[in-house]
Amino acid sequence: MNHSFVPHRLAAALCVLALALLCGCGQAEAPSESAAQPPQSPADASGQAADDPNRLVVASSQNLAYGSCLPGKEQDPAVWRVLRAGQEVFRTEGGDVYVLRNWQPDAPDLFVVSDTWNYEGNADNHYTVYDADGTQLLEQKGAIPTAVAGRQLLLLCGEWVQPSADMIYDCFYDLDTGSTSCLGVRNYMVRDGEYYLFYGDRAEQVDAELNVLANLPYTDYHDIEQVKDYQKEMQQNRWPEGYTVQLEGADAQPYLYGPNGEKVSEQPVYRILNDGQVLLSGEGEQYTVLNAVSGRIEESDTTHRYQFYSDRVKIYQDDTMTWGAFYLECPTGVYESAMAGVFEDGSAWYQEPVDVNRYDAPVHVLAQDGNEVLVTENVNNYPYSAPYGCTRTPYLVCVKPEGEIFVLRSSGSRTALNGQDVSYCAALEKQGLWLTLDRDSETGRTRRMYLAKEDGTLWMEGDQLTYSEAENGLWCIDGDVMGLRALDGRWIWKVPSEGAAFMN
Q1: Pairwise CA distance, residues 148 & 145, whole Å
Q2: Cβ atoms of residues 272 and 254 within 8 Å
């Protein structure tokens, strides 16, 4: 098992983020009294995650001259700050600092100070573990503090580390008693609030207190990721409850199982479609469309790789036709396109084909009867809210080549947004919020960023805004100020900036 899956930050990742912020980041203006409140999200749009006294936030600031992260370039050591409920509890320079997010929601996070960014592992790497109030708990070399469940600390031996006889590694270590458990664990995964431990020959699903919930037939986290992705696609595509995808055989082929636990088809799954339908792989480049609920085969031995399938609208690609092109089939005909999709009300849209010398094209909106409602001006690439063209979307966010951004709905109505480009963020999109930006036409650097609602309401603006899903807030820099802001505009924490990069 490759330990590189362990989610630590590498030096290169920090450099990329830091260089991305060189364009500057501005202090967002507070929402006006007349501005409507942004929609609340399940994660709480007010930023209470960062206000929780059990949660820690890490901010890193550096003096970043251009290219300072590149080989052979000198850079000032990072100044690391650890925040608890908006208050600084720890500060250090150099090395690296990272949070261990506690699996138990009522238990405080821990944080780790390391003298290195090299997480491939080295027996001489030094790690110091601290409690949420900055009290030192453990100091050691070699094994990497990787996760925490209550007071149980996961220590993993890095891929290139030769463990010593006295090293405690590949286990959970009790910070209060010094006892160990889950001996031999090699990796872990947290996905959708579920916890998985991987051993050399097996995997276990555990709860936040490390009680074993299930023994799994998979020994690779990629397998579990794949299975859970299928489940997520079923939810997004409005499937009934009870259907699962299981991987079988040495090549881990996916097969569909029904609510009764019986295999639905001996053909492996190629793609989950909408409304209880599935695209199955056949011989060669042949596919079958099966309605899993009724058991009816809608199409067989087709070369169409469907992404959406209904009586009125079908979207597919087909290598026997124009390679790479999408096809929208509806009551008024078949349209070859660069991208196509469906609105939530059942109407459809497609973008005209784009050749190698052209990166923009009009978007056509079709009513449920297939008749064209409107044709837009040219928009770059494809609308941001439907990157794969197969999902139902409430609206499209389009960017014109000259820089105008607008929200387009199936009715044909459109709402202008501030800026010239879109910083795509799925977590914000779910909340009806968009990050847009202005770029310098000569340098390409960002000059100003905006947080706007889908109705065009400008909610926040600054020189740079970077969304943190973990904190459900925005890291913000403004020349002489940097910090974390809630989506309601509050500053959760701020300090003078000296050029900055953020991590949490």
Answers
A1: 8
A2: no
pLDDT attached to residue 385: 61
Task: Encode pLDDT of 15-43 as tens digits.
Answer: 323 323 323 333 333 333 323 333 343 33
Interacting residues of 139 by C-beta distance below 8 A, sequence separation 6+: 126, 127, 128, 129
CA-wise closest residue to 179 among 147, 142, 144, 153: 153
- Residue whose entry in the numeric block shows the structure tokens 């097996």: 202
155-208 pLDDT, tens digit per residue, is: 998 777 888 888 899 999 999 999 999 999 999 999 989 999 999 888 999 999
- Phi–psi pair at 75, nearest 5 degrees: -145, 150
Model pLDDT, residue 134: 95
What phi and psi, each to the nearest 5 degrees, are found at residue 22? Answer: -65, -20
The alpha carbon of 284 is separated from its chain's Cα centroid by a whole number of angstroms, namely 34
Does residue 183 sit in helix, strand or coil? coil
10 Å CB burial of residue 488 (0-12, 13-18, 19+) is middle
Cα-based distances in Å from 437 to 357, 409, 424, 449: 25, 22, 11, 4
Question: How many angstroms separate the CA atoms of 484 and 499, rounded?
Answer: 15
- Please say whether the beta carbons of 18 and 67 come within 8 A: no
Which three-class secondary structure state does DSSP give residue 226? helix
Minimum mean pLDDT range among 17-31, 115-129, 306-320: 17-31
Given a cut of 60, is residue 130 above it in pLDDT?
Answer: yes
Q: What are phi and psi of 61, to 5 degrees?
A: -125, 145
Which amino acid does the sequence have at 328? L
Residue 239 in tokens:
């499937």
Distance of alpha carbon 107 from the chain centroid: 25
What does the alpha-carbon distance between residue 5 and residue 248 come to, in Å, rounded to a whole number? 23
Query: What is the Cα–Cα distance from 378 to 92, expressed in whole angstroms?
Result: 51
Token pair of 351, please?
């973008």
**DSSP secondary structure string for all residues of 406-442:** EEE-TTS-EEEESSSEEE--HHHHTTTEEEEEEE-TT
Instruction: Give the residue carrying structure tokens 């009934």.
Output: 240
> Which stretches of 21-160 are DSSP H helices?
48-51
Residue 481 to residue 31: CA distance in whole angstroms: 18
| Model pTM score | 0.78
* Closest CA relative to residue 219, chosen from 201, 245, 205: 201
Residue 80 in this model has a pLDDT that exceeds 90:
no
Distance between CA 327 and CA 316 in Å, rounded? 5
Q: What is the pLDDT of residues 403-433, one digit of tens each?
A: 888 989 998 888 998 888 888 887 888 788 8
The answer to whether the beta carbons of residues 330 and 312 sit under 8 Å apart is: yes
Alpha-carbon span 169 to 185, nearest angstrom: 9
Query: Tokens 């124009």, residue?
Result: 322
Distance CA 185, CA 172 (A): 8
